[in-house]
Amino acid sequence: MVAWRSIVLAGSALALLAACGPKKEAPPPEEKGFAAVDTKRIETASAGAEWLTYGGTYDEQRHSSLTAINKDNVDQLGVAWTFDLATNRGVEVTPIVVDGVMYVTSAWSVVYALDAKTGAELWEHDPDVDRAVGVNACCDVVNRGVAVYDGKIYVGVIDGRLQALDAKTGDLVWETVTVDQSKPYTITGAPRVVNGKVLIGNGGAELGVRGYLTAYDAETGDKVWRFYTVPNPAKQPDGEASDAAFEKIGNVTWGDEGAWVTDGGGGTVWDSIVYDEVNDQIIFGVGNGSPWNRTFRDPSGGDNLFLSSIVAVDVNTGEYKWHFQTTPGDNWDYTATQTIILADLPLGENGASRRVAMQAPKNGFFYVLDAATGEFISGDAYGPMTWATGLDENGRPIEVAAARYGKVPVSQLPGPLGAHNWHPMAYDPDLALAYIPAQEIPQAYAEDPRFQTKATAWNTGADFAAGVPPVATPEIAKFLRSTLKGRLIAWDPVAQAPRWSVEHDNAWNGGVLSTAGGLVFQGKLNGDFVAYDAATGDKLWSQNVKSGAGAGPGTYMIDGEQYVTIATGWGSAFALVAGYAYDNSVQSTVGKVVTFKLGATGEIPDADLPLIEKTPKAASFGTEAQIAEGVVDFSRNCAVCHGALGVSSGVLPDLRWSAITADPEAWKGVVLGGHFAVNGMVSFEEYLSENDVESIRAYVLAQAQAAASESAGQ
Ligand code: CA
Q1: Residue 259 zone, left/alpha/beta (φ > 0; ψ -120 to 50; rest)
Q2: Binning pLDDT at 50, 70 and 90, where does residue 20 land?
Q3: Considering Cα of 702, then 704, then 705, then 710, what sign does the dihedral take?
């Protein structure tokens, strides 16, 4: 018992060790100002010396006016400092830099304040999240960052709390619970603050919740308004800002039956929230339906507003202003939560300037909308797709009939991980180019023949076991790996066409930073952090950051020197589900903030994690029928965290090499007994029988045997 427990806990023990490294001396806090930020200061910032909000400025272009680092000298970039984020889980944060202090988050919503010049720690705030909520986090226990305002730091906590911290000390000023914590809500996105109001949404639509965006008073934490994205189950008013929108246009797009009535319908606002200062409105992106499969969610077949939509509301009252639905009747997890960027484009009469909102959502189309009205101006596919043939004159997708899958699997692009996911897009207003971190991750969609809502598990109505072979030979894993593609696209939003693109050798590459120095920065899945010529896509500089490089990079200036920074880390949705995409020689690594400047010669420390012995700890067993049952149960219950085909990238334990897999009693203790519930591995007793879990064990050991026999050099 003791032996196998210590093996599984090794990951968390290592994370603790990593936190205990030597700390650099910090200057006394009183020499610094502390986040005396108001709306005016953010409005007038140009993402120059500082980085004041998640997307740099309110327009969220992620374009900096700094030019000290430029095309001519970027090859002299070196490591100025690194800071250990003490986690081997996912890191997706864009650091905020204000008054010489960097505010950054790690996994489990831990916040750090650092001296932005040296990386020295000023304070750390840990919200002490109960690790059992990890099972609710579809896409790892990530956090994309904080907001700063009037001397306070705002962070959304993975368990649904919103906290305000003293910017100088990290002490808690107030906290409020923003969700029903008995439901599987999570918060991973960065809050935004406008006119004394903190805006925050949530996630959870994979499991079954009802989405909304809420504004809280920045000073007190009191709720100001809430906008639901899905009607309430009785289609009655909630007494909230969204009531009128549902009465007028939303309710009729939903039937009266289906899983949405009990499961909430989805539509979570988990990432993009932008303030349009010209029209004094909030424009936000709405996520997928819950369950994904509309046949189960709402058999009446409606458009289901405001799923997969871009919605604008009044900043002060939350009242509905306009919406544009990118994917009517979502059926595929095609969220419209991806980066929303505001810009002025020459799309008015006679080439006059027109203020627009742009988005490249998961569904593969790039949209340009009028920011004031939501009018569809133009749209086109930015990558290969098989689900639609184009957009009609109103911007509605022209669907391929087979895309509304039944029981026979349909392989489709984009898949649920999208043609573009959370990795932030950037926009260079001088070159009038949007930089999209695009990808191809196909998916076989099929209706789940056993669909019924489970309280603490994924509820998609799509069958993750569809098309999965009983024993995946290494050749099958290699073939799957070969279907993954990624590219950085410089997209001309006026012409709706690419001006250049760079092909990557894998999917799930990083967010983008654009600078007036003529540069575009992007990290890649393999840890390469690269600077490209913004006009041509020529590669000008690259350094491997020894971990995942998916987060949005930032830049800032202190004492006449420009810095470029990126938070690194391995986890996230893709690292959990798609271990087969990761290089076998790369270990799950510890997250860091890595900050560069010209002429620096620092080193990025190695993660120093022990290699896992990749051998099965028991012989394989089981009949063909048992293994066939195992692949179905594993794919439906285990794969989203421990990896499709049983292959883990190493963020969570690779069950093939685990000692627990070798011991039927220990295995049952974890899967049915909930022995590791405190780590997020809750009991599956409600959904799996003893025979089921033994079949899963037989399947995992068969997978282990297949992989081991290959590495033995067949
Ligand atoms: Ca989703």
Answers
A1: alpha
A2: very low
A3: positive
| Residue 58 three-state SS | coil
Rounded to the nearest whole angstrom, what is the distance from the C-alpha of residue 22 to the centroid of ligand 1? 39
- Ordered alpha helix ranges (H), 308-355: none
Please give the angle made by the CA atoms of 442, 302 and 377, to the nearest 5 degrees.
Answer: 70
pLDDT in tens, 667-710: 999 999 999 988 888 899 999 999 999 999 999 999 999 888 87
Distance from C-alpha of 490 to C-alpha of 382, rounded to nearest angstrom: 10
b (16+ CB within 10 A) / e for 386-395: ebbeebeeeb
Tens-digit pLDDT profile for residues 511-529: 999 999 999 999 999 899 9
Angle at which helices 624-637 and 690-711 cross, to 10°: 100
Is the separation of the CB atoms in 435 and 512 below 8 Å? yes
What string of DSSP letters covers 265-290?
-B----S-EEEETTTTEEEEE---BS
Whether the pLDDT of residue 6 is over 60: the answer is no
Which CATH superfamily does the domain covering 624-713 fall into? Cytochrome c-like domain (1.10.760.10)
Whole-structure pTM over 0.90, yes or no?
yes
Ramachandran assignment for 249, one of left (phi > 0), alpha (psi -120 to 50 degrees), beta (any other)? alpha
For the question of residue 606 being annotated catalytic, the response is no
**Ligand 1 geometric centre to CA of 496 (Å):** 26
- Exposure b/e, 410-425, CB count within 10 A at least 16 = b: bebbbbbbbbbbbbbb
Q: Roughly what angle, to the nearest 10 degrees, separates helices 690-711 and 474-482?
A: 80
- Give distance in angstroms: CA of 210 to centre of ligand 1: 13
CA of 485 to the centre of ligand 1 (A): 20
Whose tokens are 């797009």? That residue is: 253
Q: Let me know: does 703 contact 471? Beta carbons within 8 Å.
A: yes
Å from CA of 207 to ligand 1 middle: 9
Q: What is the pLDDT of residue 27?
A: 44
Name which of 421, 64, 105, 438 is nearest 272 in CA terms.
421
107 three-class SS? helix
Local structure of 700: helix, strand or coil: helix
Q: 153 C-alpha vs ligand 1 centroid, how far in Å?
A: 28
| 3-state SS assignment for residue 524 | coil
Q: CA distances (Å), 589 to each of 109, 545, 593, 605, 639, in order?
A: 18, 11, 13, 11, 21
- The 10 Å Cβ neighbour count of residue 277 is 17
Q: Do residues 664 and 693 make contact, with C-beta atoms less than 8 angstroms apart?
A: no
Q: Does domain 29-416+423-566+574-598 have CATH number 2.140.10.10?
A: yes
What confidence score (pLDDT) does residue 24 get?
Answer: 42
Q: Identify which of 179, 191, 170 has the alpha carbon closest to the alpha carbon of residue 126.
A: 170
Give me the residue spans of the domains in the chain.
29-416+423-566+574-598, 624-713
Residues surrounding ion ligand 1 at CB below 5 Å: 288, 333
Question: Which tokens belong to 189?
Answer: 């996105």
Q: Which of 333, 428, 663, 692 is catalytic?
A: 333
291 upstream amide cis, omega within 30 of 0: yes
b (16+ CB within 10 A) / e for 475-501 = eebeebbeebbbbbbbbbbeebebbbb
**What is the 140 CA–ligand 1 centroid distance (Å)?**
12
